[in-house]
Amino acid sequence: MAFTVRSTDERFLELLRRYLGEFRVDDGPDDYLYQADCGKERVLLGGKVVRGKAFLYLGSLRIFAGAPWEEMAGRLVSSVRDLVTAHSNEFLRVRAVGVEVGGAATILPSAPNPHLPALAAMLVRAGARYLGDETVNIDPVLHRVHGLRLPLLLDTRDLVHFPELPRPRGRSRLPDAPEKLGAKTPRVPVRLGDLAGGDGVARPSPLRGIVFPEFRPGERTELRPLGRSEGLFRFVEAALNLHIWTDRALVLMRQLLEEADVRRLVVGSLPEAADLLLASLSDPSSLDGG
Predict the structure, then answer these.
(1) How far is the C-alpha of 174 from the C-alpha of 176, rounded, in Å?
(2) Which of 4, 167, 222, 225 has its CA 20 to 30 A from that of 22?
């Protein structure tokens, strides 16, 4: 899939090149045309520069409104990811974190949650190899997990866990009740190379572990056993192209659950959850005790 981006400010295109430069081609089509209206800057007394409200359009549809260009870039990457994965129905697509450790993949299927990418980024920073922050593709024949080369998309509230990453310029306008929006909150793109230990997307890897996260801030972070029937229910909840696969998806999910180590991860603290999960993946025998 190819797309074109036009902008009222060259600096926004320079920002995009930082995250998507490896995909750039000289001539792009107009099938998917993104248009960025970067707004106007005002100089206040004292010389402070205030960036005006920006807008991003896909064709004639407005898909972003806000001040930080980094968040506008995040919305563009999110839209591109949706367009790309919409055409990959030869795979079972799952909303999940995906990482590779020791030559095998572990996925964390989940209902929409804004903190999934932060968990993926922490695992990568700690040494796991990246497969996905919210979307992974599973080969129905070889049962291998395929990753995406696009940047991670971190919720702006989770940047507090990543002091090494730059902060967006401009004030984010979070909704009064962001938890009601699922994962549709302001995000910024993050390159794997900007995370300590991040060294690119892993090769397609055989699926070894399926861990279902439960985000419960303040509770004890721990791995717990999970029954196959409940695992199947949660797997179905995380499937993204079930309308394509229909009953065949259930058969495949049952096979994957039978073949993999299946656990539940209670996430009371994101850093603690990443450390606990990576420790269990580095020593697979630790999963046997739940």
Answers:
(1) 7
(2) 167
Name the amino acid, one letter, at 209: G
In this structure, what DSSP letter does residue 180 have?
A: G
* pLDDT the model gives residue 284: 59
Phi and psi angles of residue 260, each rounded to the nearest 5 degrees, phi first: -100, 165
- Strand duo 187-190 + 205-215: pairing: unpaired
pLDDT of residue 180: 47
Measured from the Cβ of residue 256, the count of other Cβ atoms closer than 10 Å reads: 21
Residue-wise pLDDT tens digits, 252-270? 999 999 999 999 999 999 9
- pTM (predicted TM-score): 0.89
Dist CA 42 CA 53 (whole Å): 11
The widest CA-to-CA distance across the chain, in whole angstroms, is 66
For residues 87-103, average pLDDT: 94
Close Cβ partners of 217 (under 8 Å, ≥ 6 residues apart): 268, 269
**Which amino acid type is present at position 212?**
F
What is the length of the chain?
290
Cα–Cα dist 272/267, whole Å: 8
Q: How far apart are the first and last CA of the chain?
A: 42
**Structural contact between residues 17 and 25, judged by C-beta atoms closer than 8 angstroms:** no
Percent above pLDDT 90 for the chain: 69
Please calculate the CA angle 84-87-91 and round it to the nearest 5 degrees.
105
Q: Tens digit of pLDDT for each residue in 179-190?
A: 544 456 899 999
pLDDT over 90 (residue 234): yes
Residues 6+ apart with CB under 8 A from 68: 51, 168, 169, 170, 171, 172, 186, 188
